[in-house]
Design a protein that fits this description.
- The structure holds 2 protein chains of 2 kinds.
- Chain A is mainly beta.
- The two termini of chain A are 15 Å apart.
- Chain B has one domain: Serine Threonine Protein Phosphatase 5, Tetratricopeptide repeat, CATH 1.25.40.390.
- Chain B is 53% helix and 6% strand.
- Chain B contains 21 helices and 7 strands.
- In chain B, helix 18 runs antiparallel to helix 19.
- The chains are: A mainly beta, B mainly alpha.
- Chains A and B meet through strand 22, strand 24, strand 25, strand 26 and strand 30 of A and helix 1, strand 1, helix 4, helix 7 and helix 21 of B.
- Strand 30 of chain A pairs antiparallel with strand 1 of chain B.
């Protein structure tokens, strides 16, 4: 109460210090705006809903907050005014949505934009902003490529548009494009990070994000022209708010582990399989290298290798703090995060991250000039094994020897196996630094016209290495540090952008017009080089290249990419009922030859608020909107149009290697993506229910593809636009409801469902090309062509397949005609938010229906020295047996090997991979320590529960990499 | 009033500044979208205006042959693949490797080796043609160097077509980089391909020097072309000219003579060597040594067939010095040990040999025998036999002598560039030798099929070789 006493003493007869708390009747409302009516002055309520403001006795306070009806209270000489606000969902439509170059009120928008905000993001104990979006937005399909920290995500917004060129969306952070192309390189990170796809977005701390908007249709994306085809992801970081300075300190700790293990054979079953395999092959005396059965290895030994090598628990720790505040003119936000997490692998592997974000904005007192600066800086340090053991572990024989001998050294069991821990001797290390900054300045020349410039500068640096000390090899080979090797890779990326713009708007009585014109200049350079050092006096010097006997430069590269564009938007609002939005962009890109550097893109969108005409009492809001337009895609790599020779390491006779880079084609141009959408947005019963239903058709043409050529040309193809057509169409459904609420209890729910369909409509000459093995007209681009399993022949005991061309043989191309479509049939999410007094519970389920590779896909031929899923025991043993698994072979039966190899590429190796997953569970408890201090305790879980019939480790990621981890954290946050 | 003026001034300055900013970008806009040359890349036109890069464009052709195409000693070269296809090598690798199907004669028009061999060869031919075209317009480099480089490019183009023809039969002969032409080419009859190859090589002779450039035998000179022509003329059946070309090399005693000690045959600068490949890095040795030598049994990948090992006559030094036996106590396996250095050495000790003098003696023997110069033939055979510690051959009739030559080639040239396969094909005994040991043998296996993907893209390549 000290501040109150103090302010009472300080008051002058004409001014009161008014205090109070703003609640919704049950819980406080933080962030509500309190203004003095008729003045510019105001403040914002703190986390406890408390505010204080100096007012004259006869002033009126105006209290407003999004989603609640605005309240006016006369001061009337009171010094304490507590306000209870009533929810009014119509104001939800007043939410201002970021659309990139402009922002738009939700009720007026003509385009298709999905959104997630800090409230949802903060409930998830994850590292990458993409993880926070999984399942939460209609039309946005995101999957994690691996559970190893630092790995990337696959993201498709409304499906795969391009057959070969990139399908990544454009990312814009605080107004500046963020290059999401990984800098990872297979030489160093290829074996541990899937596709070396080290996600650059790991540099962004999810807790520093205020909102993420995803632009999906032509209306929203065409202003991004050549880069809008695959959608646009806009990330806005947190800003300071007017009012007293707030401090926020948060600490969390937790664990992560692999949630589900494969069910594999135990020693007894395994040895039964092996012995039977030799019997089947007619081999009576076990060969010398059948260590598991010939007595070399202890046959009573059993190790659950998944538990031993992947069953560890990763520890998660994080500490973050932020300070924010500001006054009417200047606001700031500063935050910092330190995070450390270990891995599930044995050994001291860990991932460290430090990120800082800062934001400062200022508005001149005459409101004409404004400036905002955002700065983000991130340091990451990732220490991992060189290889993801997830591939090898399920294949280790269950009676394989102990990891360590009696003296605690790696056990090689007389050279009879490769100790899997030896793989962990080879270590991957990466360190990266990432800076991104943006500056926006605007000046209001007159009430209609504003000049604005946004500029950005970003640089990122990734340095990684892979060390292979000789100790990872069997000592029997007699290697020493002269064969130790280290691979270094260093990458640098720098980019800047400048976008001068003019914003003009004019309001008349019944209508208004908004116009934006602007241009973009962007340049990005990317440098990369790699070295290998071989042979060191001792392994201790391995990270010191100058100690290497041999140093080889493996690659060196520098790439420039520039774009120059002009864009415009014209928006017309008639009577607040009809909205028209016209956008266009002329884009120039250095990726194309002299004749094709420029392309034109544009879209038209319209919306009609029909509820205004109808006046149904149960329908609060009804909007019909539609858009059509053309966007493009230039994700084809740089310099593809040049006739160049490249330097490579094919050196000879002391000369470097020089190879023709490609068959050159100076004439190729953009991929074009035409998008059409129609949607209806509805709100019922005081907007307690609101829903959006959208249907879209996108067609991508001018596909940039290696047009196949016969080998006699010296190459197998030439980069050119092919008249192929890919269609993505689909339904998207979003629904949210306030199911129940009273003073103590609230329950709200959100559902989104997407039903996408991807289809290759046209591909001239498909049957004459090798693409014939990958694609089929009328099918999705995510198909695989497989052998069709007929089952096990009861006579021979071998797998048999459908002979599609009836030539009596099973052949690789002709008989791989079974089509399995891995694209999702539908997917979505269900979010439930329950609040009881100070306790809130967030339950988010993600679901998806699709097919995937099952547990057999990556197995070795059954019966060989390699463990198998338990399902193999239902095998053929004698003529006449009906079995699901073919006869075992030790490896000596080529027919059985061939049949099994085909099986792994057949309809038998795929299964339904649909799932419903409890993606997020967050339980938060708010503790009001005193008037100004709040403590939030939370338990958060990610990937807690998965309901699936899938046979395999994880239905989200079935390519053999480490599945996404189950994460549970305990957190405490203090706000004052 | 004063404040208004200042505001107007600010307006004015802002608009001007903005206009300058925008227009300055617009003026430079053409340059803005022209990036610098990509690092590590050189525009085609500039390559052949500089002696170092022009030479590098040619040496890269050798590097490709050494590491990737036909002549390489690794598992994708003729030595391994045609050794497996014939009766020289047994396969112990994984059954899903393409070489297993080569070994079993289970190949078809979509087989990966059939496709990649074809593609890699024509890619190399494209590179040679690009160099030839680039050099034609090159004015800034020394005329002698230009001739040397052009000659080497023609040599690679001819040699590569020769190997392609030996595998695939009638093939297109590619002499331009223009893909609009090359995507519709037709196959030429082998007789015509022979003519084109020889025309290229005759031109090459006019371009190259008699001596090697540099101290090693790692770049083509005139005798290299003669040696290759001798081989090609022999395959063509032009006995007289084959003999003449062999003579020119064998008589060049200033450069060449048979190494008396077999263990010196494959060393760097062996006097038997006519063309050797220099390894990529200092201290490296040959792909052959790392591919053929194994240290544990059963062999991990390849071993010599027992039939080859057992075929040697007693006391043949080539068996004792060029073959190594490994045993597990019960059973023995053998590997070629011509190249012995399978690890790096301080200085490279062995270079992979493309053509060596012993082959020239055997070419001349065969050419002489065919021309009924039996004594001349015997003399050449015995030169080779005597060096291997064997007595003179007992063959007397022309048929016996030719058989002796076939055997001698087997013992002398085993696991070198698929000689054995091309010999049994040329002597028309492939069926007789392979039918008993390769269950999938058919007479049509004498040629590889034309890759199916190419036929689909270019129907001018039809008809497919018989049997596929």
């Amino acid at each position: 109460m000290l501040p109150l006493t103090f302010s009472l003493l300080a008051q002058t007869p004409s001014t009161l210090e008014v205090n109070g708390q703003i609640t919704d009747g049950a819980s406080p409302i933080p962030g509500a705006t309190v203004l003095i009516k008729g003045e510019q002055r105001g403040t914002v309520s703190d986390f406890n809903g408390r505010y204080s403001i100096a007012a004259k006795p006869n002033d009126t306070l105006v209290i407003s907050y999004i989603g609640y009806a605005t309240v006016e209270e006369s001061v009337n000489n009171r010094t304490t005014i507590n306000v209870v606000m009533k929810e009014d969902a119509t104001t939800l439509r007043e939410v201002v949505i970021n659309a990139g170059y402009y922002s738009v009120k939700d009720r007026e928008r003509t385009g298709s934009i999905s959104r997630t905000t800090a409230e949802e993001i903060e409930n998830q104990p994850v590292n990458n902003p993409l993880a926070t979006m999984q399942g939460r937005m209609a039309g946005v399909d995101i999957s994690e490529t691996s559970g190893v920290p630092g790995s990337g995500f696959n993201i498709r917004i409304r499906g795969q548009n391009s057959i070969i060129a990139g399908n990544a969306p454009l990312y814009i952070i605080d107004g500046v494009p963020f290059d999401s192309q990984t800098m990872g390189y297979s030489d160093t990170s290829g074996a541990i990070i899937p596709g070396s796809n080290i996600s650059p977005l790991n540099a962004i701390n999810p807790s520093a994000i205020e909102s993420i908007e995803v632009l999906k249709d032509a209306d929203a994306t065409a202003i991004y022209g050549s880069r809008g085809a695959n959608g646009v992801v806009l990330i806005t970081t947190k800003r300071g708010k007017e009012g007293k300075t707030r401090f926020n300190i948060q600490s969390a700790t937790g664990i992560a582990h692999i949630a589900h293990r494969l069910k594999l054979l135990n020693t007894e079953q395994y040895l039964e399989m092996r012995r039977e395999a030799f019997v089947n092959d007619g081999i009576e005396e076990y060969p010398f290298n059948a260590y598991d059965v010939n007595g070399t290895w202890d046959q009573n030994r059993y190790t659950d290798w998944q538990k031993e090598l992947l069953g560890g628990q990763a520890n998660l720790k994080q500490l973050q703090a932020s300070i924010s505040g500001g006054n009417k003119n200047t606001r700031f936000y500063l935050s910092g995060l330190y995070q450390n997490e270990t891995t599930v692998f044995p050994g001291g592997f860990n991932y460290d991250r430090i990120t800082t974000n800062s934001n400062i904005s200022h508005k001149s007192s005459n409101d004409k000039f404004e400036v905002a600066l955002n700065l983000g800086y991130t340091l990451e340090d990732n220490k991992l094994p060189n290889i993801d053991l997830s591939f090898t572990v399920p294949k280790l024989a269950p009676n394989a020897p102990a990891l360590f001998d009696e003296e605690g050294n790696l056990n090689w069991e007389n050279s009879s196996w490769t100790n899997p821990l030896s793989q962990l001797e080879a270590k991957y290390n990466s360190s990266s630094q990432n800076l991104f900054s943006s500056l926006a300045m605007g000046y209001q020349l007159n009430p209609e016209l504003q000049v604005k410039i946004t500029a950005g500068y970003g640089t990122s640096h990734l340095k990684d290495n892979n060390a292979f000390p000789h100790t990872m090899f069997n000592p029997a080979w007699g290697m020493n540090s002269s064969s130790s090797m280290i691979i270094f890779q260093e990458n640098d990326k720098t980019s800047w952008i400048a976008e001068p713009q003019l914003h003009w708007s004019k309001k008349w009585k019944n209508n208004s017009l908004n116009l934006i014109v602007g241009s973009t200049f962007q340049k990005q350079t990317f440098d990369r080089y790699g070295l290998i050092g071989i042979g060191f006096p001792t392994d201790r010097f391995m990270h010191n290249l100058s100690a290497a006997t041999t140093i080889i430069v493996t690659n060196e590269n520098k790439i420039e990419y520039t774009t120059q564009s002009f864009f415009a938007r014209l928006n017309y609002n008639l009577n607040d009922r009809l909205f028209f939005n016209l956008t266009g962009r002329r884009d120039g890109s250095s990726r194309f030859g002299p004749e094709n550097k420029y392309g034109n893109f544009g879209a038209f969108g319209a919306a009609w608020l029909f509820s205004e005409e109808l006046n149904f009492h149960w329908l609060d809001f009804g909007k019909l909107r539609s858009s059509f337009g053309i966007t493009g895609n230039d994700q084809i790599g740089d310099y593809q149009y040049l006739h160049n020779f490249v330097i490579n390491d094919d050196s000879y006779d002391d000369y470097i290697g020089l190879l023709p880079a490609r068959l050159f084609n100076p004439n190729f141009k953009w991929e074009e993506n035409k998008k059409w959408e129609v949607a209806v947005d509805l709100g019922f019963f005081q907007n307690k229910l609101s829903t959006t239903l959208a249907y879209y058709i996108n067609r991508s043409s001018n596909q940039l593809i290696q047009n196949p050529l016969p080998g006699t040309t010296g190459f197998t193809g030439i980069q050119a636009n092919l008249d192929a057509l890919v269609e993505n169409s689909g339904w998207e459904f979003e629904f949210s409801a306030n199911i129940f609420r009273n003073n103590k209890f609230k329950w709200s729910t959100d559902i989104n469902i997407s039903i996408p369909k991807n289809k290759l409509l046209k591909f001239p000459g498909l049957e004459n090309t090798t693409y014939n093995n990958l694609y089929v007209i009328g099918q999705s681009l995510s198909i695989v062509k497989l052998y069709e399993l007929e089952g096990v022949n009861p006579e021979t005991g071998l797998f048999e397949f459908v002979d599609y061309n009836n030539d009596g043989m099973i052949t690789a191309v002709e008989d791989r005609q079974y089509i399995a479509d891995f694209s999702p049939k539908f997917f979505g999410g269900l979010n439930n938010k329950l609040e009881y007094k100070n306790l809130s519970l967030n339950l988010f389920f993600q679901f998806m229906k699709r097919m995937g590779h099952n547990e057999y896909h990556l197995t070795n031929p059954v019966g060989t020295l390699s463990n198998q899923p338990v399902g193999v025991m239902d095998r053929w043993q004698a003529p006449g047996d009906q079995a699901t698994m073919q006869r075992f072979t030790s490896g000596a039966d080529p027919e059985a090997i061939t049949a099994y190899t085909r099986f792994t590429q057949s309809s038998g190796a795929i299964s339904d991979a649909s799932f419903i997953r409890l993606k997020t569970l967050a339980l938060n408890y708010l503790l009001y320590l005193n008037d100004h201090t709040t403590c939030k305790l939370s338990i958060q879980g990610q990937n807690l529960l998965t309901i699936t019939s899938f046979k395999g480790s994880d239905p989200e990621q079935f390519n053999g990499y480490m599945p996404p981890l189950r994460r549970i954290t305990l957190g405490m946050e203090i706000i004052f | 009033m004063k404040t208004i003026n200042i505001q107007n001034l600010i307006h004015f300055i802002t608009v001007i500044a903005f206009a300058i900013l925008v227009s300055s970008f617009l003026l430079s806009c053409d340059d803005f979208l022209e990036p610098d040359d990509p690092f590590g890349q050189i525009p085609f036109q500039e390559i052949f205006e500089d002696e170092a890069t022009a030479t590098a464009a040619i040496t890269t052709l050798y590097a490709k042959l050494r590491d990737d195409v036909f002549l390489t000693g690794n598992s994708s070269g003729l030595s391994v693949q045609m050794g497996l296809y014939a009766d020289e090598l047994d396969f112990y690798g994984m059954p899903w490797e393409p070489n297993f199907e080569i070994y079993q004669h289970l190949i078809n028009a979509t087989h990966s080796t059939v496709q990649t061999t074809w593609n890699k060869a024509y890619n190399l031919i494209y590179m040679a043609n690009a160099a030839i075209e680039g050099l034609q317009g090159a004015n800034a480099i020394n005329e002698n160097l230009k001739n040397q480089l052009q000659g080497e490019a023609l040599f690679v183009r001819a040699f590569t077509h020769f190997n392609l023809m030996n595998l695939y039969g009638d093939i297109p002969y590619i002499t331009t980089t223009n893909y609009m032409v090359n995507k519709n080419v037709s196959r030429l009859p082998q007789s015509q391909v022979f003519e084109n190859i020889l025309t290229d090589l005759i031109e090459t002779k006019t371009l190259l020097e008699d001596n090697y450039i540099g101290p090693e035998r790692t770049r083509a000179n005139k005798p290299v072309i003669s040696a290759l022509m001798a081989r090609i003329l022999l395959y063509q059946g032009n006995w007289q000219e084959a003999e003449a070309e062999s003579n020119s090399v064998i008589n060049n005693t200033a450069l060449y003579s048979l190494e008396n000690q077999l263990e010196n045959e494959f060393l760097v600068n062996s006097r038997s060597a006519i063309l050797q490949f220099k390894p990529k890095n200092f201290g490296e040795n040959t792909h052959e040594a790392s591919t053929f030598i194994f240290g544990s049994v059963p062999p991990p990948y390849l071993a010599l067939t027992n039939s080859l090992v057992n075929s040697f006559e007693e006391n043949d030094l080539r068996k004792t010095q060029w073959i190594t036996e490994l045993s597990d106590g019960n059973q023995s396996w053998y590997h070629a040990n011509k190249y012995k250095a399978n690890t790096n050495t301080g200085m490279s000790v062995e270079y992979s040999i493309v053509i060596r003098l012993a082959e020239l003696y055997l070419i001349r023997a065969e050419a002489r025998a065919k021309q009924n110069n039996l004594s001349g033939a015997l003399q050449d055979i015995n030169t080779i036999r005597n060096r291997a510690g064997l007595n003179n051959t007992t063959a007397t009739s022309q048929t016996e002598i030719l058989q002796a030559i076939l055997n001698e080639r087997k013992w002398e040239l085993f696991t070198e560039q698929g000689h054995r396969w091309f010999d049994i094909k040329r002597f028309e005994v492939a069926g007789q030798i392979l039918a008993p040991i390769k269950p999938a043998w058919r007479e049509t296996n004498i040629l590889f099929p034309i890759p199916e993907a190419d036929i689909l893209l270019n129907p001018n390549l039809l008809p497919q070789n018989p049997g596929y």
